[in-house]
Amino acid sequence: MSTNTIRQEQPKNPAPVFDFVQGVSKVTAGTLLGITMLASSVVAGGLVGLAISFRNLPDVRVLRNYTPTETTHIYDINGTQLTSIHDEANREVVPLNKISPDLKRAILAIEDSHFYSHHGLNPGGVLRAFVKNLEEGKTVEGGSTITMQLVKNLFLSPKQAVSRKAAEAVLAIRLEQIFKKDQILELYLNQVYWGHNLYGVETASRSYFNKSASKLNLAEAAMMAGLVQAPEDYSPFVSYQRAKQRQAVVLNRMKELKWITAEEEADARKQPLGIGKITSFPGSKVPYVTQAVVQELTKRFGRDAVVKGGMRVQTTIDLKLQRIAEETVRTWHDRLYYQVYADQMALVAVDPRTHFVKAMVGGVDYGKSQYNRAVQAQRQPGSAFKPFVYYTAFASGRYGPESVVYDSPVSYPDGYEYYSPRNYGGGYSGAVSIRRALEVSLNVPAVKIGQDVGLNKVIEVCRILGIKSPIEPVVSLPLGSVDLTPLEMAGAFATFANNGWHSDTTFIVQVTDSSGNVLLDNTPKPKLVLDPWASASVNSALQGVISQGTATSAQIGRPAAGKTGTTSSERDIWFVGYVPQLSVAVWVGNDDYTPLVSGSTGGGFVAPVWRDFMQQALRNEPVQYFRPASDFEPPSPN
Fold first, then answer.
1. Residues that are catalytic
2. What is the dihedral of CA 6, 10, 16, 21, to 10 degrees?
3. Which H helix or E strand runs over 143?
4. Per-residue pLDDT tens for 458-474?
């Protein structure tokens, strides 16, 4: 809680308490003084009785540990704000010394000019309001002090009643006994409602004038102060004319109090104001990304902490790379929609060195569908699953990229039937190396190897790589008969790219509270989870897929590895590829699982999408090479 004082900011000779009675000529000064003393005595005496009657009122001491709800802000990895999220209250808490002196004076002038001289209750203010309301024949002015307004907002209902006003008075006196004036004013300015779901002076200032509350000048401060009584009625977003009229009332009051000069008042009235825009419930610059970030935060901290806790969230997303990804998806969807009749696409880019998600596109148009296919859609990866099988074989110590496997007819019992794998396009190749089997994506050798090394071992490798989707050890598993997400595929291949070093894939670098205290630190802590020789062997074989296999259309002029994926029903087509700096999965298909045009393959239609994205993403990145398997010791056979 800030303890900076603003007492010195007030004039030495504030306006008299009873300046409101000018024009009430029939009431003499002596009579008025008597009325005031009587009113004060009655009020003071009444409060003693009320204090006894209101023993069940809230304990204001809880405010010592009170933290107002705050808006959470989400940024990209370079500090560019992506969005803000909040519940009802859009608020950013600031200390008193970060609020413009002009605004503090303006608020005190129009709401409670005797704030620093009373003890929570201002009998003169009550009487002034009574006389004013009597003259008007209706309630036009309240007698509440800032302290009373604060306890009403924090503890009491807005219902107008004598009992509530009495409770306000009691709680205000109690609050003034345990808090300093500056602490109360700071709480008030951060708590008060300014209209349009804007709570607290900082958020309101940034919305109304596009600047921090510390930067407000006199003209802006007077308009802000004028909003408190009826924010939506006096809002410049609703009626600039009414807002200016209310600003004039505040400036005039400040002049009457001799807190500003007549010249300052005139200058402030004439000063043009640059009005901002409503900032509550803003849209996200990258909605699929922020949706995923909020889900990750909610899972860890709970919803209330996310929408009310004032978090500052640094994500892993690079906004420049994200824009490249979005434009790539948009461009290629327009082409593929008519070529293969695919209505959706997803792309995920992961940095293998950190497992940070650098870019993610969950669909073609978030405005039409909020379903995030990058992290929620579990689709069959087809042959893009084969590298997990062959890694398991290499890690067993019994196989290498040059090991020979026979591509020949075979059948395996599968429940009550037999399963006989077939190659895409039919036919068999006889004796082939594993390298070649991967390059041209032969199915039969993958199934044979899967049976030999054990499908449970393959599943174990998938778990090590961070894949959490359900996996059953069915005979056809090596051909991708499992439902996985693009995020899982990109993250798993990233571990191959990093020679077996793995961190948990995440969208979040760090989370702090509004005071800078670290709540979550996802600084990468890579662990060597795969055999380095086996990982390097996978990298070597998958480079051949691009240089001379099913994905020659993915060539980008530098060393790259990857694997195509096409399901037998042609409902899903994939390409998952990587360089040492970036692992990217691209999926194309239909939400309703409608098959694509016959002959649609990952190599023919998705690899070019990957190539387009990678060429742009790596434009300013140096060429890096994969470490050869010869740098590592092969595992012993098991």
1. 111, 383
2. -80
3. none
4. 999 999 999 999 999 99
